[in-house]
């Protein structure tokens, strides 16, 4: 039963995406056309067009799936065990020291190779 509802709404999805595209294009062209107007007015108009376009895009089947994905991602983020401040500082220090050691090794190898090449070229 639900698959029929999704199929009936998906007939209009192309039209909805076309409206979203027209709104975005109108925002771009309008921003160029009204370039002499105040930046505040242009930003408010672009934000309003963006909100309307996002609302219309969320009414499509892909938009609905995207909204569900965002909700599920938010639930998963709450399950993450974040490191404590001391763990974060310790891990960051280890990474910085490791990067410095590797940089010194690469600098030494580069110096050695350039010294050898300079010796051969003479």
Automatic annotation (TrEMBL):
Keywords: Cell membrane, Membrane, Protein transport, Translocation, Transmembrane, Transmembrane helix, Transport
Molecular functions per Gene Ontology: protein transmembrane transporter activity
Location in the cell: Membrane
Transmembrane segments: 12-33, 39-58, 88-109
Chief location: membrane
Swiss-Prot/TrEMBL GO biological process terms: intracellular protein transmembrane transport; protein secretion; protein targeting; protein transport by the Sec complex
A Pfam cross-reference name: SecE
InterPro entries in the cross-refs: SecE_bac, SecE_sf, Translocase_SecE/Sec61-g
GO-annotated cellular components: plasma membrane
PROSITE patterns recorded: SECE_SEC61G
Family the UniProt entry places it in: Belongs to the SecE/SEC61-gamma family.
Function description: Essential subunit of the Sec protein translocation channel SecYEG. Clamps together the 2 halves of SecY. May contact the channel plug during translocation.
NCBIfam families given in the database record: PRK05740.2-4 (NF004378), secE_bact (TIGR00964)
Assembly: Component of the Sec protein translocase complex. Heterotrimer consisting of SecY, SecE and SecG subunits. The heterotrimers can form oligomers, although 1 heterotrimer is thought to be able to translocate proteins. Interacts with the ribosome. Interacts with SecDF, and other proteins may be involved. Interacts with SecA.
Name used for this protein in its record: Protein translocase subunit SecE
Organism (species): Marinobacter persicus
The encoding gene: secE
